[in-house]
Amino acid sequence: QLQLVESGGGLVQPGGSLRLSCAASGFTLDHYVIGWFRQAPGKEREGVSCISSSGASTNYAVSVKGRFTISRDNTKNTVYLQMNSLKSEDTAVYYCVAAPLGPHSPFWTSLDGHDFPSWGQGTQVTVSS
Q: ∠112-73-9 over CA atoms, to 5°?
């Protein structure tokens, strides 16, 4: 059974950093596109970042570009989201998502939640002084 487990969330001051991890079980990441989404209270779900199955392509929301970095280690079956220069507006529950490569190019990425059938339970990130 495909399972995604997020970790690394917590409370951090503005300007600080956190690294989120997404550990996959029940499948190997090699043929999956992995993304991160977030949802803050009262706001719509937002695609944050995505990395292609090959790892060669990445995609970022404008709001996080230059501050967040997504990476993957297929040997550890884990994807990471390094978040730097955090702002209060980054406060949200962060979800790891996965989509099988299927017919897509190994360079395919997406920030549309409808493209991802598998979701983790989420990890809370709170940016506050």
A: 65
